[in-house]
Structure prediction request, 192 residues.
Amino acid sequence: MTAKSHEITGIAATEGICLLTSQKPAFALLACAGAIVGSLLPDFDTPNSKIGRKLPILFFPVWLFHSLIYLLSLLPGPLQKGLKNYSRQTGHRGFSHYPITWLVIALILLPLLMNMSATVQIWIFPILAGMGIGIASHILTDMFFGGVSVLYPFYKPRITLSPFKTAGLAEKIVCIAVLATLIPMTLRLFRI
Ligand SMILES: [Zn+2]
Prediction:
């Protein structure tokens, strides 16, 4: 999926969950801001992504590491098969699209969040909740357009839920449908 489609579906998923859980407009606003970042975050594994272009210095070490592993995997030898597998994991739709990666990050961040003051938690929690929803919606929608190894490390092949390709007509139709639901949800959530 393209960055725009990920942002739209991420915001729609967040607004939907905020409505279902009767969140206040201020909470929803912070969650949507988090969702925009979260919905783009898994694509930091490629310099061609929107987030990669915006923050190249931050993600450059990841791309450099992947390029190095890829080049080493081209050399014949006993490590070639292992390096090829590793190159797939560090490349696009690799570890940054594995739910387990974000689960581990969440488990690391949770104690830090719990130790923050209540005033800070009020601000941080909706942003992180939105980011989580954005990341989940990104991975889920990528499963429909190209596939993702969502069950890694238990099952390594990519799981694809449709034959459609990124940036095709099907993606545009999905985006229009999601936008159509987004407008009434926004009006209701923010009581406009
Ligand atoms: Zn992606």
About this structure: The pocket of zinc ion is lined by residues 42-43, 93, 97, 138, 142 (CB under 6 Å). The chain has one domain: 3-44+94-189. The mean pLDDT is 93. The two ends are 30 Å apart (CA to CA).
